[in-house]
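tl;dr need the bound structure. longer version: we got a ligand (1-hydroxynaphthalene-2-carboxylic acid) that a collaborator sent over and nobodys looked at where it sits. i said id run it. heres the input, straight from their email, havent touched it
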Amino acid sequence: MELANDQRSQLEALYREMEPANLRPLWESLAELVLPEPKSPAVPHLWSFDAVRDYLMRAGDLISAEQAERRVLILENPGLDGLSSIVPSLYAGLQLILPGEIAPSHRHAQCALRFVMEGDGAFTAVDGEKVIMRPFDLVLTPGWQWHDHGNDSGKPMIWLDGLDIPTVRHFDASFAERLDEKAQPVTVPTGDTRARYGHNMRPIRGSAADRRPAHQPLFHYPYSDWRPALDTMAASAQIDPHLGHALEFLNPADGGSVMPTISAHVRLLPAGFETKPRRSTDGAVFVVVEGTGRAQVGDRDYALKPRDLFVVPSWKELRLQAESDLVLFAYSDKAAQEKLNLYREECA
Ligand code: 1HN
């Protein structure tokens, strides 16, 4: 803004006088408020699973899951200091449950997903049903559903928690409750929900057999389903030059994202494949499930190995190269952005 010296000093005097009245001049900040394109305060970052795991196991020696309520190390974006956020809208953490432990039952407005990183056989109970968690399974705990975790296996279990905590904080809409008992009563057999809602079928609406919330029936997407699906796809389909072979997890109730605020997908990049550059407005968290390769995120370049985690903030260009067959899981705030008509992507 071009201002004469005299005008500038008179305006600044006005600003000082207005400040106690909680008034500020828009014209001084308009360009920062309404950006011509996204300029995320979040930065690209990669966490090596092994490095996080060491700290998590040390925490495991010092505090129980029950004491902590949830024993989790938050993956905080270096550009979002103190905000417990991996991108401005989303939270990520790695949770440890040791053999014999219980993470007590609670429910909250926030939506959560779990993606299993290590171990086999712990459970999450969701509204009266246990799911047994196996490596690279996706398990949802949608908003306001009771959930607790326990580990009856002989080994530590570690999973990635993805939640919309910053989104709920943004709307000042957080509610939470704890159950009096540690673990909620289990009222239906394991697998009941998958049988009823997990095969492109559902109980007749409103019948006695229709027991899950109509808007959010399914909460378990096992690796044993999604991994072979990618292989089958890779055997025949033309590969998308920007994504590789990609499959989005769906909510069967409406064919939309797994939860109202969070989308999730998996992809397979065959050995030697390199994606063309792509950027999108969603902030995304990626997990390397299998394989090695490289990720270029904006001006950063990361070597990828199994179980590494990396974050791609809004509008940072992403390029992926597969050394060996590379399998990735990702979740993002695309679901929320699409509802608000904000989502955009650009493929080079
Ligand atoms: C939560 O409920 C879990 O249920 C994990 O495992 C992490 C972080 C913030 C708020 C709630 C869980 C969480 C959380």
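gonna send this back to them w/ a short note. Residues 68 and 103 are 8 Å apart (CA to CA).
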